[in-house]
Amino acid sequence: MENSLSPWSWSPGPPFPSTRVVDPARTWNRRLWGGEIIFAQGTRQQPGRGDGMVSCSIEPPSSLSHAHVRAAFRHLRFKHPSIASQVAWSEGDKEARFMYEAPRDEFHVEAWLDATTFERTYTPGLGLDVEASLEHWRSELAHAHCPRTNHLLTLYHISPSGSNSGAAHGLLLYAHHSLFDGIAAWQVLGCVLSEIACVIGGGDERAWAPLAWGEEYARLARAVPDRTETKWEMEDMNQEWPAVKHMQAVLQRPSVNILRLANPAPARAPWRHSLDRTHLPVHSRARARTRR
Q1: Interior CA angle at 272 toward 270 and 273, to 5°?
Q2: Which of 27, 36, 107, 186 has its CB 3.0 to 4.6 Å from that of 32, i.e. a possible disulfide?
Q3: Residue 258 domain flag
């Protein structure tokens, strides 16, 4: 990680004098930039606002356990430490910064895993498959009253009950928008899958091999200005400030309840019954016939 690239580069130490950390010598911080600021402010005022979820179902070897998933998330943190960063605020919420604390030992890594990886089980054959279970937990996590945390990435492992070890598993990632946009959320899901495959293929020896914690800070994600050819100056933010102020005002507005219609329109029929195929191009009619 290069230093002094811009005012948004990572620097050693806690972000603010009031920030409490375990070890200042193993702590790094950087200023938020552009959209990071907007989404961090939204989350600060209304926890959960702007957060996103991505999920998938997999059919891994029957040997896959939650311990494998935890080991995979551990390796992912070492390769991409920003997933374990947090947004810290100054007194009075005047400024926010990303903060990363390198763990001292595996005890601290385990504590982080306990707070960011969760296992939920389902029982195949009782009317609830892995997709239904994923939908259930997406709904639970999206609920307005669901408790929120400062962790920017959380992993939920949906596993079959013990007597159904050969059934499908589900993975659900809950990501804060201050760090992850939609593309990044899918990318990190791909990284999780890759690490799980490596853990299963490498056995316990690789899964829990010692890692040089404290060195990973060099791979902390840099701000956009540090990753593009166009260099930004602090003055460049001035032209965006009116939009930021407007966004702050919008975020402070009370929520609006959408009233349901007294006589809602009937649900639309499936497309293959509602389209008049005689008005479709020839190639579209051919596709329609193949889908019947």
Answers
A1: 70
A2: 36
A3: no
Residue 46: domain span: 11-220
What SS3 state is found at 66?
helix
CA 146 and chain centroid, separation: 16
- CA–CA gap between residue 10 and residue 217 (Å, rounded): 9
Angle, helices 35-45 vs 241-251, to 10°: value is 20
In a domain, 41, yes or no: yes
Amino acid letter for position 280:
L
pLDDT in tens, 254-264: 655 444 444 44
- Edge-to-edge, what's the strand order for the sheet holding 169-175? 52-58, 169-175, 153-160, 117-122
229 token code pair? 């050819």
Residue 271 has pLDDT above 70, yes or no: no
Q: Are 159 and 17 in contact (CB under 8 A)?
A: no
By the 10 Å C-beta count (0-12 exposed, 13-18 middle, 19+ buried), 28 is classed as buried
Is residue 253 in some structural domain? no
- Per-residue HEC secondary structure of 128-183 comes to CCHHHHHHHHHHHHHCCCCCCCCCCEEEEEEEECHHHCCCCEEEEEEECCCCCCHH
Residue 80 has pLDDT above 70, yes or no: yes
